[in-house]
Specification:
Length: about 350
């Protein structure tokens, strides 16, 4: 397999150099399913990990390398650092953010929460360390419904941030009435229910798999809604031979690899020439490439200075300690309720 923009032999050469650099620097690569396929394969081939954001957090915490290299977006790197304060955590670029994180500035959010002191504050993992530190619970999409069900059973009132689509989906699943922040994912928000229905008329036996950051109209016609890992598992379990998939294109690499006999079709966003801002491809996930990874690893091997502002995740100690509490609660809850304990798809 070759990387976008590189020839096959260039790709092979850079992969060889990166594998040696991981060993030389005692680093482990943790990649998200939305990164380029060649990066996902490299993570697996070099003793690292590919997974959804919950599993990435867990792998980073449990792995014994001195350095974690997170190929994903910044909140994933920050989560890894919060859970592993004694490890150094690096990213190909710290500019890889997320529209949900950007939509939830800590001062505004904290002022909002202060108005409702009797509400439990539950935030999605796609937030800054500071927002996590303001929360009672952090959740990812693989565990959000279960955690809110648990809180509802205790009679808790809830503030949810920042993804409004996921928040409303949770409300529909659990019957909770939450105060919901108005953020959205620029990738998932673009999927169109009408387009999915038209596509279904063409691929009559196809099941629709959707990430819960998609709009309610798309989720309403989906056969399965879940996190990235849960989508891969559903594709394995369901007997359909075709699937229309409403999430970032990066996931098709894993789907095609583990299920070569099935066909995966990207859900419509309105087309590449239309006005969608992302067309099923997260611009920040796209900042991870073999070249940016190599730049980082070469610097690390040359004794990169602590706190390199392009690459190293650093979090204020007090914020990190405070953010660890709701993150640890999520991991404990996942372990107690056996949520995705079997790990990789
Ligand atoms: P997952 O937790 O399902 O991997 O989702 C992370 C994400 O950013 C989806 O857009
Ligand atoms: Fe954020 Fe959406 Fe990109 Fe996921 S796909 S990292 S939610 S912008």
């Amino acid at each position: 397999m070759r990387s976008a923009g590189l020839g096959s032999s260039e790709t092979e050469n850079i992969l060889g150099r990166l594998k040696s650099l991981f060993v030389e620097t005692d680093s482990r690569l943790i990649a998200h399913y939305y990164t380029e396929g060649v990066i996902q394969d490299l993570a697996e081939a070099s003793g690292g990990f590919v997974g959804d954001s919950l599993e990435m957090a867990r792998f980073g915490r449990d792995c014994d390398a001195s350095n974690l290299i997170v190929a994903g977006v910044r909140f994933m790197g920050e989560t890894a650092k919060i859970l592993s304060p004694d490890k150094r955590v690096f990213m190909p670029t710290l500019e890889a953010t997320c529209s949900l994180d950007l939509a939830c500035p800590v001062i505004e959010f904290s002022e909002f929460c202060d108005q409702f002191p009797d509400h439990a504050v539950v935030v999605y993992a796609n937030t800054s360390a500071a927002v996590k530190a303001r929360a009672d619970w952090v959740v990812t999409s693989s565990i959000a419904v279960e955690v809110i069900e648990h809180l509802v059973s205790k009679g808790q009132k809830i503030i949810w941030a920042p993804d409004k689509h996921l928040g409303r989906y949770i409300e529909r699943c659990t019957g909770a009435e939450m105060l919901i922040w108005e953020g959205a994912c620029i990738v998932h928000e673009e999927f169109k229910a009408a387009g999915v229905s038209d596509m279904r008329a063409v691929y009559k036996d196809a099941a629709v798999l959707a990430h819960p950051e998609s709009p309610a109209s798309v989720l309403a016609i989906a056969d399965f809604v879940g996190s990235t890992t849960q989508i891969i598992k559903a594709a394995k379990t369901m007997t359909n031979s075709q699937f229309i998939v409403a999430t970032d294109l990066g996931i098709f690499h894993k789907l095609n690899k583990v299920l070569p006999g099935k066909e995966f079709i990207v859900a419509p966003t309105a087309g590449n020439d239309a006005t969608c801002r992302s067309c099923a491809s997260c611009p920040w996930m796209g900042m991870n490439s073999l070249e940016t990874l190599e730049m980082l690893l070469v610097k690390l091997a040359d004794r990169m200075e602590i706190g390199d502002s392009n690459h190293e995740i650093e979090i204020n100690e007090a914020v990190s300690e405070q953010a660890m509490i709701p993150l640890q609660k999520m991991l404990n809850f996942a372990a107690q309720n056996k949520i995705l304990v079997e790990g990789k798809a």
